């Protein structure tokens, strides 16, 4: 990369001298007019024709300057990718970098990858084993087992186009550092609401600098309110607790709630003036933990109106029985 930067700077200086030739270039005859004098002819015999030819040739040469730089880079790398910064990085993992590239390509095709893109310039993709930092001019491949992550900064914006209706949003900067020094440290910028999803994907602890304060995501705040309401609901007496299987959603917790109609049914009109469906009894056995059920419930609500989530309704994922928050009971 350093070689490319040096070459680019030198070529940029050379291009400036071609476009705006200094006295030294003019004295040495190193100008477009001097070099292509055999095509331009004599100015004193055909001034207008000379200027027409000169402007065309000058425009052509100037427009070719970026193209020449591009051709050099393509020739340099297509001849052998070994000098490319990304290939040099991949060789740290395996001397035959193609093997590493094939592994990354295979994981990239996985539909469960986590992608972050806050602008059209930078993009970060997280696969099962890699954090791929993509910019206009580089690709950094960081193996998750070789990184240390820390949130180093958080900033909040009251108006953001990343939120519906321009609502407030918090962004966090996450420093990605190589434990073995294979790559230079880089920063991932992500919405705070997506932080938990990212953490779940990489399954690796992310430290938080002591001066950074993270606000809870909308889902986290709803989960707290949902669980608090469920605690105040009547409990469901379930006798076969020993036969419970792991939660169908997370598979890490045992089911601890049952959908049991507790509310009093009466006709209601929703916020859009439409009649709301009546809650019905669910006869499914306990299959969900309270956290997963709260996320299922939230997923059925209008994302643009979180204030309507708690009084909303959803359907049982298996039998489609309609329920509200009052119909969710902890097992006893």
Automatic annotation (TrEMBL):
Claim: Iron is one of the keywords in the record: no
Segments traversing the membrane: 12-36
Location in the cell: Membrane
Any one GO cellular component localisation term in the record: endoplasmic reticulum
Molecular functions (GO terms): ubiquitin protein ligase activity
Statement: the UniProt record of this protein carries the keyword Membrane: yes
Protein's name according to its UniProt entry: Transmembrane protein 129
Keyword terms: Membrane, Transmembrane, Transmembrane helix
Primary localization: membrane
Any Pfam family hit: Tmpp129
